[in-house]
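On clarity, I found the account of how folds are encoded harder to follow than it need be. Since the whole study asks how a given chain folds, the encoding of that fold should be made plain. For illustration, here is how one protein appears when written out as sequence plus structure tokens:
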Amino acid sequence: METVNQKINFNFILDSFNDAYIPLLANEARYLLLYGGAGSGKSVFAAQKILMRCLKEHNHKFLFIRKVARTIRGSQFSLFKGLTVDAGLNEFFSIRESDMKITCKLNGNEIVTAGVDDREKLKSIYGITSVWVEEATEIDAQDFRQIDLRLRGKTQNYKQIILSFNPVDANHWLNTTALKNSIKLRTTFRDNKFIDEEYYEVLESLKEQNPDYYKIYALGEWGVKRTLIYKPFEIIAEYPGSFEEIIYGLDFGYNNKTALVKIGIKDNQFYLSELIYESMLTSKDLTEKIFEKGYRKGENVYCDSAEPGKIEELKRAGINSYPADKSVKDGIDYVRTCVIFSNERNSGINKEVLSYSYKQDKDGNILEDPVKFNDHAMDAIRYALYTHKKKKKTAKIVWI
């Protein structure tokens, strides 16, 4: 271990921590609950703590876990990789992209990944010494018991499960169940000295848009969302083997999420598939991913009409892209009449629908406009369903 300390300046690493979290670096409680508002740095700290333990301790196998396995690549896996680069420590890690396995070259410590949606894989992973569950409110109490069972046996170092999450629903088991040997820390965006000014202002603006939303996503307090726009979409395990028609909704983003939702239509019912839900995509990246996700020539993609240049780029690449009708009230009213199904793999969609809310005025009266926050998949779905409906209606008009 002396060799490691000679190579790595740990004081330099500590400079990148938010002060609120530093006391938890040495905390050995079995359950470490990091909850609070958006932009509070809780996920970054979880990754930082595991990074430090990877470098300073031996005989570890850490497990990164989320409800849906594929979402780990764009969250925990990507975050950990970025931290190693930012701290100048990437030379000490071997990163295997295919199965998202990370190995510390200094001591053989490993990080592996799994989703609760693949329980057989989860049950086959042995020798876990600590776990990080991101977006922990996505999992239910039964999921948690399965995860907890993976952390057993004698280990050289303390065993710990880190759970990071937004406190979206006061009735969630994470709020109503007392975990023995646990430590909780609530933080907000004001605890994050690295937050960018633009995002800071976005979170502050929630106060004027919806007090319930502000309580949860800015103040990081357990709340009850009383102004939800849609009922949660029904989650089903299997979709039909074929559809009468397939359409897509696309909400552009870069710093924000780009959301591409595929919608299968059968018997006037709609089946959602989340194909893209990630940030930092260039136009070239987006085009390549659309084809990688199985887009077939001739299928219609209804896009955010505020980006005509991007729509034209997609057209030139051979994608049938159209500007969407962005009528918010009429679009929402139509979507609320639709029979819509989702599945467990649609993590972004399923999360957004549980928080997609109307604005409120200062007196608590509900307004007709949605809160502009965490709405990328919801916009994509509305673009597709409402614009396609209007397109079909127009096509039926026969002029004499």
In short: Residues 130 and 288 are 37 Å apart (CA to CA).
